[in-house]
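note to self: dont lose this again. the chain is below, predicted strucutre after it. 731 aa total, dont forget to put it in the shared folder this time
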Amino acid sequence: VGAACAVAALVALCWELTLGPARLVVPWAPTWGLSLEFTRDGLSGLYAAMALSVGAVVVLYSRAYMPHHLEEEGRPARDEVRFQVLLLSFMAAMVLLVTVDDLLLLFVALDLTTIVSYLLIGFDREDPESRAAALLSLVLTGATSVVFFAGAMALGLQYDTFSLPLVFERAANDPAPTGALVCLAVGALGKSAQVPFHFWLPRAMAAPTPVSSYLHSAAMVAAGVFLLQRLYPLFAPAVAVRDGLLAIGFLSMTVGSLMALVADPFKRVLAYSTIAQYGYALVLVALGSEGAPLYVAAHAPCKAALFLTVGAITQVTGKKKLSEVGGLRHSLPVLAGASAVAAAGLAALPLTVGFFKDEVFFHALVERGPAFMAAGLVGAGLTLAYTLRLWWGLFGGPRQDVPAAPRLLVVPVGVLAASVLVGGFLPGLLVAPARAAASASMVRGEASSLALAYHLDARAENLLAVGAWALGAVLFATRLAWTPRLTRVLEGTSKVGPAQGYRVLLHQLDRLSTWLHEKEVRDLRDRVASVLVPTGLLGMTVLWVTPLRDRFVPGSVGWADVTLVMALAFASAAALATLRARNHLVLVLLISCVGFSLAMVFAFAAAPDVALTSVLVETTFTLLFAGLLALLPDRRLVRAQAEAQKPRGRDRISAGIAGVSGFLLSWSALSHLQADRVGTQTVKLAEAAHSPNVVAAVLTDFRGLDTVGEMSVVLAALLGVTSLLKLKGKG
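---
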């Protein structure tokens, strides 16, 4: 059913794309100028079609793969439903990401992919490796998404809008600041697993094979490059930022390719190759090449087919490493043939769609000169070498007999391989969608002139392709001579790389958290101080940096204010008296006097509803505290009271910081009251929200998302407590 729905969505998408570009704008928060904006253009169509088509094939594949996987993990068969729901949810999140046309919505969709990918990567929750990999991906991609949000907010504040068409229009006259562009780029690089954020991707191979196939060929990793393509009009004038992306792209190509040449687990070879391949795509984006969308789309079916191939082999043989298999072409001829086509596409051999992804890559490098051409030749040669190593390691060598693979594990690989061949034999079919995608991702007003065809001549692109094939073949043939030395070098560099830095940072943060926890929970006073002191320091910092004239203005007190002053004086006296209370019951009564005094203040301030609420709350909590004190042992109460009568020096400092900050902030706020008060505006807006009750309008409309968040936290806590009680009952 899930695959059928994906195919139906794909058909609908293709039909809509024939109608031309379109936008949908739905007002979201009109008073803030926010709208839900969606677009249907060549770029979103290409990525959405890629996500839906590859996703449908992976969903079918998982129908045969997951029952066996769940059985091996000792899990019930019904968990397959959860897996399929998560997979389809990620498909929907990916389609949402590529169709939104608003910076804030881009961030929301980006976070949706992060959350669902965390659940998919950690699907085998009983496996420590899966849990660690899921946490790593969540922390790294989530953190870079927050950086992306910072860049989006900076642009929204600068251009007074989050709508991408308006942002692009205003950026044409007022270029985006470099800092904001760097933040956007960091968010994209984290998603696409580019150096230095690349190390989460190989760890994510702990997920079931359908997850690896989909997320790392046509979905999650593709999302990062998509962001850069969608936002390219902002990056186009920022030459320094694009040069940085170019350097990162070449570095990712190198690191990914070298690691793929020595990795032993099947899926890790493919993971490192994904890092390298998206390094190619990043180079194309940085160069402003119109072939970048085509490169990503051509890579997707090749990589998905190879992932599904190794999944089928793992399920048939029970092996996960190249050193443990070989010679499977005799027992699995159809799978070997289909995967050979996919491997040829990945290595950019003729008569496959992959040939044209390298053609546009070489074309972009030729325009930049010999150094770029040499780098591209080496990168393409390494691609052929590790692709040959993978395929030959699986299917080459002495014969090894294994059981036949289930048909539903082989057919999806065949379908993807067929698409690779169709794109290679009929490149004309790719021209229109590739041009539409390129035009949508380029600077406004520029049209794409992308052309795809075989040219039997000595042009530079062809010479580079032939040179890359020759280099790849030589590297593969001589692999036994250089692999051990390369392995030692890479193992040595891994001890000082970003992955090691992440582990050290995590360890230090854990130590810091433990130290803070010990300091905070030592007793109640420290716990309260850990909240009040930072808040007080932040408040005084705000006052220090806020340029307000006449910040502290003394007011006048008339005879009409006498009752209010008396109530405040009584509240202050009761608060000071609590410091000298000799037992807990007196302390509770004095605190209640403070609350009742403030209720009197509200009554004098013409707020009887708030005063009534305050009286009810104070009465209830006074009785509650009195009841709790009656249940506590007298010995503990006496000891606690004795300790409370011995204030420490840091207690006085904490109280001073909090008190001074609260006093100054209150005085400053009351010194700058506007004629058009917030309360007046709230009443007017409550009428616009069709609510006769201002409080209800505030809770459900003005801060509705905040209310939903609070309710979600409470609901999650209740569910957690219920689960714990259920587990306790089982024990």
